Amino acid sequence: MPLTIDILIILCLAVIVLQDIKYREISWVLIPLILAGFIYKAMEYKNILMTDVLLNISFIAIQLLLLTIYISIKNKKPVNIVNTYLGIGDILFFLVICVAFSPINFIAFYILSLVFTLAAIIIYNRFSGKQTKEIPLAGSMATVLIFLLITTEILPGMDLYNDGYLLNIINI
């Protein structure tokens, strides 16, 4: 059953990738489906702790708060970053993936996916001759997550709910 759940999550993530790249928006129906899939995975065989989810949500909240403060200072007035700098779909996607990782894995995924997004946009702008201002953030993060979910099926020791695998790689 866990493989079936992974396949369903991957299919939903693939739809997010396609929608975000093509339309710069995602269907809200996919958010609860992916959330339910990750909650099932966590409950089925990993028993992710609620404290892990709360730590991940806190990390996102701090990131959004700092981004809001930075942009407000830059513009010399209070700025609501939702629907001007970040879409609501991006923020909802951030919250959903909080259930998919242990805290250290979540931070590593978050940083890795943002670097991937930045690199992809730089390459796109360079070779397309266009300068895009809208970035398919949820779609690019979903791309990285698809890759990770497939990798966890191939590498049996890799576990997104356990920081041990990543900590062993970096020798901490």
**DSSP helix count?**
7
Largest sheet: none
Q: Into which percentage range does the β-strand content fall?
A: under 5%
Q: Using the alpha-carbon principal axes, give the shape.
A: globular
Compute the number of structural domains.
Answer: 1
Helicity level: over 70%
N-to-C order of helices and strands: HHHHHHH
Task: Compile the SSE list and pairings.
Elements: H1 2-23, H2 30-46, H3 50-75, H4 88-97, H5 103-128, H6 137-154, H7 164-169
Question: Can you put this structure into words, describing what you see?
Answer:
The chain is mainly α and 172 residues long. The chain has one domain. 73% of the residues lie in helices and 0% in strands. It is built from seven helices and no strands. It has helices at residues 2-23, 30-46, 50-75, 88-97, 103-128, 137-154, 164-169. The mean pLDDT is 91.
